[in-house]
Specification:
By secondary structure, this protein is mostly helical. The protein has two domains: 10-44, no CATH class; 50-84. It contains four helices and no strands.
Amino acid sequence: MSVTIKDLDEDVFRNFKAEAIRHGLKLGEAASEAFRLWIAFKRHGRVRDRDRMLTAARDMDMLRKKSLEGWSGVKEIRKWRDMRT
C-alpha cells in the first residue's frame, strides 16, 4: 500500500528514517510498528511489553526466594560498591 502523508515534520521524519535504518527495518515496516504502538498507547494509556513484565516478575520471585534463604540485597549492593572503588 502506498500512502502520502502531508504536513510531516521534516526533522522527525529524518530521525525516524535514521532509526529504522539503524535497526535494519524498511521504512514501511518501521512506520507500521510506530502506527501500531501509537494506537495501543491511545487505547490503553501506555504500551505494555508482556514478555518484559513476565521476565521482571520471575526475577522478583527469584530475589524474594533468595532473601528467604538469607541473601541480602543491601549486602549485595554494598559488595558491588566496594568492588568499584
